[in-house]
């Protein structure tokens, strides 16, 4: 565990009692395992972890269903399982809250993969036993029956063969979605408690029962945890919310959080070398990495974590998470962090990011937020030798190559300090090891956090006032610089933090007011935007002198006294500039509470090309020992102009050693849209690994970054191409990885050649408006000869949707009341969509997507589910593609904020569902030299050579109407990409896929209304032969039937009315098949009957009435003779006959199902009473089910998904379970729509009868996936 680098070891050795004692740290991460090695107690014997919280809600279980136990102490869980509660558990109310959860939803992908392998191994063993037995039965049959002529014997053999085939097929299609665990919550008279039933995870059948689980309450009350099973070894914490209606099962979403916590404060009494930086500090774990999203942080998780940190009165927050951002120091989370730091005095420390080595790669929030201390990652020679086990360590410490660099796009330094960025630290028990090595700024941040915990421990013990402002000042002003040039501050911040020196500094600082200095800079003559530093990046700014107005405002904590602190505040400041001759600033400044303005002049005109970094810093004239009170960072990246034609830049003979970075800044010529670069290496023996980054910055965009990690031998050459923006500075950062080549002592020689290419066009985005008119494109090559070879494809369809429902609610104060006292609100928007066939889709919320930290909305989360409530996809700011089968779907979008007006404006929020078109549906667009080309069909345009300075025009044609994908609706938008040029190396794909071109642009086509079918309805205007009276009578009859269909039978009164009217209508229209079919349909839909046998007998009777109303001879005659489709009235007759046949088949089918149910209830076959009397002297009695089946078989295919259930039941009656399962499996496959529960219930019952217990268990687990009791909570 690296502690020496930040002088933590020296400090604790000198002050053993200041080892973090009395300090509480909130770990915002993927969750901390309280059972992990070193995370149980502090150095002074106190509990290490005071609370473990899942702030994301990913482990929430809906336990709002309340049940009572029966006389035997059993309750029924929402999974349908019968559960025995422990008789010793106190439950005065007798009410048990129940819920269930698919356990894999709580586990990491790594743990899930391990469990799947273990479970598959056990399942395979059982399946092989079943296969062996099935093969044995088949062999015995074949030996016994050498010649099989009898039909029944053939069917019996087919059944045995089907069993063997089915078992083998299932072995190939096995897909373990994990078992379901039941959860039970109750109030014991004092606190809420919960227990889990985890039998399905255990090897032994008697283990994991609910009654054996040690009940847990909220972790902060008793600090107890459990595990699911010995097999997974995964720790879980249970927290209960909302009066027992929500159970939060807390697990970690990756080992990351436990590792971070261990670096901060692990304690090992017997092995002090394994201790974290502050072994005396206590922790709370705030899980912000959502298990549903692979450990991605969510807005909900971030805000709840801040609430928890304030609620627990934490001293420190460590957050080793981050994302790129559009706007620095901006967003809802940033606003709340500012409140937590400035009002509640928490010190917030976070990782700067792992996106280096290029400049301006710091991530949010750690590297972009003023109130957060952003930490870079440093590696020392000792770490290289010990933790990284290198053959030879570097001679001196340095920043890791991948550590993100500043400045931010608004000029702030970005990285505040650095700390050791790698460690061997504890990991969760489910990893089956105590600790592992990880590196990253995720590790440097907790290292720094532990160091700050040591400082706070000392300050508290010595009763020194603690303020984020004074601590930050002490940290930054006592760092050891990393590197020998001013520019290294952009990598390491003020340097490597030193705990002992910061402590000495704090000793002298306690009498000084705790103040932060807010810096706002504007260019003179411009009102906006303000920045926190000066960043001259573009060529225009580097070729002239500029003047900047700096406003400095001292900011006290929110509780500061006006008279005692604000009014007396006055500092005499001397300003220093490190850029003599380049940066000019006033010499002195008298600063009061209301702040002061002063001007800075920056003149970069005499500077050489490349990177230059300066500071204007302020020294207190009365206390110069303090060092800089504030700093104004000034970064100048003076680019090299490309003057040659063709535009080519070559950097020859660059020398590299491990960790060396070359930064080249080039002014991309106007007109360039992509570059082709070639890197050549030589002069070394062992392979070398290089990071190659390119970064450009444009207003209100994330930095435009291209990156590659490549390994080179000597000599070797590699070529790359990537997009650029003309007229803007491009940084090219080439870095030999810090550990690559260590020990060989060979210097790497690198030549780098950059050739700029470009085709300028007059439209950055092409929109085809749905008309037949093509769109004109003007193309021009400004730099050199280019091959103009346009290619365009429409390969996605984007469909807009508005919500069908919106619901605004106030969230529980228990987790969602902000530190300010404001209550968080939630808006739930519901969208509906349907696919006629399977599709690969991605939802888009244009207003909100791709922004988490730089977003004023607190949170967004969506889930997509089918009609069975099965969730197919979840996501938040970064939507991902999901494969959906045919069917109807619901997308629910969940938004959070404390401002009801903001949410009200979102109630009609438009989202897009983008469906990927398969290759055969994708449309390759055509190009023409004339506007009439798409209609006339000539003048096609393929390619040409663009001469610099000369424009060439062509037309992009809309897709032909017959090429549009099937079912695409008017108003939808086909989207894709268009490219214009070709790279000079590699495969060009001849324009088949423009998205693979280094530069492509968006193209879209608005789908117009479908053409009117002018032939529709022709020839169908035959005169009506019915009189007005006859038509009126039919209308009245049909109206009566509609009234009957609309009567609700949910009440006794409704059932009585329905029965009375049905009897009346049957007497009035005794042979009218549609009426009788409606009566049968209504009987089938009833579900509140008492006498089941009577109910099914009524269905049989109603089905018989339908059958008897149909002239089957006439029907058979019609379908046996091929009729002339052109004959007048043929279409109408066919439709009528098809409908009649369907009514007959449905009646026979429903009758068969009812007969089968009666058989099951009575336990014997159903026979006709009259026939039974007539055949009393005969041993054989007529089988009504079999007779009905044979009649149905005459009219329809009995193995289809529509009627196959009856065939399956028949095979089941005959004991041919293998054949029944085979047909049932085919039906399920053929059905294609969302799964039907009745099919799977039947499948399970067949598997139970055949005796395949392992398949019964497997299918029951899948039932919980396909048919969950409810949608998961957000």
Automatic annotation (TrEMBL):
<dbReference type="InterPro" id="IPR048383">
    <property type="entry name" value="TPPII_Ig-like-1"/>
</dbReference>
<dbReference type="InterPro" id="IPR036852">
    <property type="entry name" value="Peptidase_S8/S53_dom_sf"/>
</dbReference>
<feature type="active site" description="Charge relay system">
    <location>
        <position position="442"/>
    </location>
</feature>
<keyword id="KW-0645">Protease</keyword>
<protein>
    <recommendedName>
        <fullName>Tripeptidyl-peptidase 2</fullName>
        <ecNumber>3.4.14.10</ecNumber>
    </recommendedName>
</protein>
<feature type="domain" description="Tripeptidyl-peptidase II galactose-binding">
    <location>
        <begin position="656"/>
        <end position="740"/>
    </location>
</feature>
<feature type="domain" description="Tripeptidyl peptidase II second Ig-like">
    <location>
        <begin position="783"/>
        <end position="968"/>
    </location>
</feature>
<dbReference type="GO" id="GO:0005829">
    <property type="term" value="C:cytosol"/>
</dbReference>
<keyword id="KW-0378">Hydrolase</keyword>
<dbReference type="InterPro" id="IPR046940">
    <property type="entry name" value="TPPII_Ig-like_sf"/>
</dbReference>
<dbReference type="InterPro" id="IPR015500">
    <property type="entry name" value="Peptidase_S8_subtilisin-rel"/>
</dbReference>
<dbReference type="InterPro" id="IPR023828">
    <property type="entry name" value="Peptidase_S8_Ser-AS"/>
</dbReference>
<feature type="active site" description="Charge relay system">
    <location>
        <position position="29"/>
    </location>
</feature>
<dbReference type="GO" id="GO:0004252">
    <property type="term" value="F:serine-type endopeptidase activity"/>
</dbReference>
<dbReference type="Pfam" id="PF21316">
    <property type="entry name" value="TPPII_GBD"/>
</dbReference>
<dbReference type="Pfam" id="PF12580">
    <property type="entry name" value="TPPII"/>
</dbReference>
<dbReference type="InterPro" id="IPR000209">
    <property type="entry name" value="Peptidase_S8/S53_dom"/>
</dbReference>
<keyword id="KW-0031">Aminopeptidase</keyword>
<dbReference type="GO" id="GO:0006508">
    <property type="term" value="P:proteolysis"/>
</dbReference>
<dbReference type="InterPro" id="IPR048384">
    <property type="entry name" value="TPPII_GBD"/>
</dbReference>
<dbReference type="Pfam" id="PF21223">
    <property type="entry name" value="TPPII_Ig-like-1"/>
</dbReference>
<feature type="domain" description="Tripeptidyl-peptidase II first Ig-like">
    <location>
        <begin position="516"/>
        <end position="636"/>
    </location>
</feature>
<dbReference type="GO" id="GO:0008240">
    <property type="term" value="F:tripeptidyl-peptidase activity"/>
</dbReference>
<dbReference type="GO" id="GO:0004177">
    <property type="term" value="F:aminopeptidase activity"/>
</dbReference>
<dbReference type="InterPro" id="IPR046939">
    <property type="entry name" value="TPPII_C_sf"/>
</dbReference>
<comment type="similarity">
    <text>Belongs to the peptidase S8 family.</text>
</comment>
<dbReference type="InterPro" id="IPR050131">
    <property type="entry name" value="Peptidase_S8_subtilisin-like"/>
</dbReference>
<dbReference type="Pfam" id="PF00082">
    <property type="entry name" value="Peptidase_S8"/>
</dbReference>
<dbReference type="InterPro" id="IPR034051">
    <property type="entry name" value="TPP_II_domain"/>
</dbReference>
<dbReference type="InterPro" id="IPR022229">
    <property type="entry name" value="TPPII_Ig-like-2"/>
</dbReference>
<feature type="domain" description="Peptidase S8/S53">
    <location>
        <begin position="20"/>
        <end position="479"/>
    </location>
</feature>
<keyword id="KW-0720">Serine protease</keyword>
<feature type="active site" description="Charge relay system">
    <location>
        <position position="256"/>
    </location>
</feature>
């Amino acid at each position: 565990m690296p502690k020496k680098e930040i002088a933590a070891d020296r400090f604790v050795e000198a002050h053993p009692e200041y080892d973090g004692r009395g300090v509480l740290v909130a770990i915002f991460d993927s969750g901390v395992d309280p059972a992990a090695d070193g995370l149980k107690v502090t150095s002074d014997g106190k509990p290490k972890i005071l609370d473990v919280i899942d702030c994301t809600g990913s482990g929430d279980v809906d336990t709002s269903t309340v049940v009572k136990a029966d006389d035997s102490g059993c309750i029924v869980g929402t999974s349908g399982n019968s559960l025995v509660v422990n008789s010793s558990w106190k439950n005065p109310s007798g009410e048990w809250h129940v819920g269930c959860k698919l356990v894999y939803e709580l586990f990491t992908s790594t743990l899930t993969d391990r469990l799947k392998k273990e479970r598959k191994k056990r399942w395979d063993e059982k399946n092989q036993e079943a296969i062996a037995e099935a093969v044995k039965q088949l062999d015995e049959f074949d030996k016994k029956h050498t010649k099989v002529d009898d039909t029944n014997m053939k069917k019996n053999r087919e059944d045995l063969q089907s069993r063997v085939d089915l078992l083998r097929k299932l072995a190939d299609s096995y897909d373990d979605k994990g078992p379901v665990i039941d959860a039970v919550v109750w109030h014991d008279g004092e606190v809420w408690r919960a227990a889990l039933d985890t039998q399905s995870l255990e090897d032994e059948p008697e283990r994991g029962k609910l009654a054996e689980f040690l009940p847990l309450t909220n972790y902060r009350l008793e600090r107890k945890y459990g595990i699911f099973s010995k097999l997974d070894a995964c720790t879980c914490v249970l927290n209960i919310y909302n009066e027992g209606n929500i159970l939060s099962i807390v697990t970690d979403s990756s080992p990351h959080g436990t590792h971070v916590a261990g670096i901060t404060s692990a304690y090992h009494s017997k092995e002090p070398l394994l201790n974290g930086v502050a072994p005396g500090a206590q922790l709370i774990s705030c899980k912000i990495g959502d298990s549903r999203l692979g450990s991605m942080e969510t807005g909900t998780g971030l805000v709840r974590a801040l609430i928890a940190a304030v609620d627990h009165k934490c001293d420190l927050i460590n957050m080793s998470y981050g994302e790129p951002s559009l706007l620095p120091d901006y967003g809802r989370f940033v606003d709340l962090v500012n409140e937590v730091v400035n009002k509640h005095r928490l010190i917030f420390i976070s990782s700067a990011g792992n996106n280096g080595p290029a400049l301006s790669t710091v991530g949010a929030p750690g590297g972009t937020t003023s109130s957060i201390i952003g930490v870079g990652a440093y590696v020392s020679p000792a770490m290289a030798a010990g933790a990284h086990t290198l053959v030879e360590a570097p001679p001196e410490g340095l920043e890791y190559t991948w550590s993100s660099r500043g400045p931010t796009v608004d000029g702030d330094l970005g990285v505040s300090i650095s700390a050791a960025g790698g460690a061997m630290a504890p990991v969760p028990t489910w990893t089956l090891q105590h600790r592992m090595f990880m590196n990253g700024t995720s590790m440097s941040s907790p290292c720094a956090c532990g160091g700050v915990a040591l400082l706070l421990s000392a300050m508290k013990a010595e009763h020194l006032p603690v303020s984020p402002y004074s601590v930050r000042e002490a940290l930054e002003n006592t760092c050891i610089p990393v590197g020998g040039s001013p520019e290294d501050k952009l990598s390491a911040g003020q340097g490597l933090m030193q705990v002992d020196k910061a402590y000495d500094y704090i000793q002298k600082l306690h009498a000084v007011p705790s103040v932060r200095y807010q810096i706002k800079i504007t260019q003179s003559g411009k009102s906006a935007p303000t920045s926190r530093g000066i960043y001259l990046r573009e060529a225009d700014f580097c070729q002239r002198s500029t003047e900047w107005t700096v406003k400095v405002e001292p900011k006290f904590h929110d509780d500061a006294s006006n008279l005692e602190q604000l009014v007396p505040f006055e500092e005499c400041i001397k300003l220093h500039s490190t850029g003599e001759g380049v940066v000019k600033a006033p010499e002195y400044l008298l600063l009061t509470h209301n702040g002061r303005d002063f001007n800075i002049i920056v003149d970069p005109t005499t500077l050489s090309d490349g990177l230059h970094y300066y500071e204007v810093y302020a020294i207190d004239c009365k206390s110069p020992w303090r060092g800089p009170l504030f700093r104004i960072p000034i970064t100048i990246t003076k680019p090299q102009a490309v003057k040659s034609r063709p535009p080519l830049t070559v950097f020859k003979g660059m020398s590299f050693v491990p960790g060396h970075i070359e930064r080249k800044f080039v002014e991309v010529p106007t007109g360039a849209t992509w570059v082709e670069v070639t890197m050549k290496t030589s002069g070394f023996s062992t392979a070398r690994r290089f990071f190659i980054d390119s970064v450009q910055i444009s207003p209100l965009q994330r930095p435009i970054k291209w990156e590659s990690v490549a390994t080179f031998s000597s000599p070797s050459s590699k070529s790359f191409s990537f997009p650029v923006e003309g007229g803007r500075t491009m940084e090219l950062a080439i870095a030999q990885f810090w550990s690559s080549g260590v020990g060989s002592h060979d210097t790497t020689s690198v030549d780098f050649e950059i050739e700029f290419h470009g085709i300028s066009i007059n439209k950055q985005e092409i929109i085809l408006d749905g008309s037949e008119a093509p769109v004109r494109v003007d193309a021009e090559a400004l730099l050199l000869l280019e091959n103009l070879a346009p290619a365009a494809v429409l390969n996605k369809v984007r469909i807009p949707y508005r919500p069908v429902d919106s619901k605004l609610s106030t969230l529980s104060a228990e987790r969602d009341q902000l530190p300010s006292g404001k209550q968080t609100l939630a808006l739930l928007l519901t969208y509906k969509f349907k696919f006629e066939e399977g599709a690969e889709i991605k939802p888009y919320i244009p207003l909100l997507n791709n922004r988490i930290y730089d977003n004023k909305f607190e949170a967004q989360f969506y889930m997509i589910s089918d009609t069975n409530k099965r969730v197919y996809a979840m996501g938040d700011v970064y939507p991902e593609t999901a494969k959906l089968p045919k069917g109807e779907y619901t997308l629910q979008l969940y938004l959070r904020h404390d401002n009801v007006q903001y949410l009200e404006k979102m109630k009609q929020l438009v989202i897009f569902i983008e469906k990927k078109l398969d290759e055969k549906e994708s449309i390759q667009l055509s190009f023409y030299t004339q506007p009439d080309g798409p209609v006339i069909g000539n003048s096609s345009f393929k390619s040409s050579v663009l001469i610099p300075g000369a424009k060439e025009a062509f037309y992009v044609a809309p897709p032909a109407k017959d090429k549009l994908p099937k079912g695409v609706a008017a108003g939808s938008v086909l989207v894709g990409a268009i490219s214009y040029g070709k790279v000079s190396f590699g495969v060009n794909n001849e324009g088949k896929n423009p998205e693979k071109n280094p530069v492509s642009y968006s193209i879209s086509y608005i789908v117009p209304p479908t053409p009117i079918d002018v032939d529709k309805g022709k020839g169908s205007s035959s005169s009506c032969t019915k009189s007005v009276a006859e038509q009126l009578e039919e209308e009245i009859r049909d109206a009566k039937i509609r009234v009957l269909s609309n009567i609700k039978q949910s009440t006794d009164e409704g059932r009585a009315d329905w029965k009375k009217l049905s009897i009346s209508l049957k007497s009035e229209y005794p042979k009218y098949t549609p009426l009788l079919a409606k009566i049968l349909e209504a009987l089938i839909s009833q579900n509140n009957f008492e006498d089941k046998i009577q109910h099914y007998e009524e269905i049989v009777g109603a089905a018989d009435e339908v059958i008897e109303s149909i002239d089957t001879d006439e029907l058979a005659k019609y379908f046996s003779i091929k009729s002339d489709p052109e004959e007048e009235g043929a279409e109408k007759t066919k439709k009528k006959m098809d409908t009649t046949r369907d009514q007959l088949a449905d009646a026979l089918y429903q009758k068969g199902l009812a007969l089968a149910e009666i058989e099951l209830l009575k336990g014997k076959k159903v026979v006709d009473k009259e026939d039974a009397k007539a055949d009393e002297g005969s041993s054989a009695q007529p089988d009504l089910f079999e007779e009905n089946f044979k009649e149905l078989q005459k009219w329809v295919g009995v193995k289809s998904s529509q009627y196959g259930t009856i065939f399956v039941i028949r095979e089941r009656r005959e004991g041919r379970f293998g054949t029944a399962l085979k047909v049932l499996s085919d039906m399920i496959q053929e059905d294609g729509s969302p799964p039907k529960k009745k099919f799977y219930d039947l499948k399970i019952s067949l598997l139970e009868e055949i005796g395949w217990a392992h398949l019964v268990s497997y299918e029951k687990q899948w039932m919980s996936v396909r048919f969950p009791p409810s949608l998961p909570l957000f």
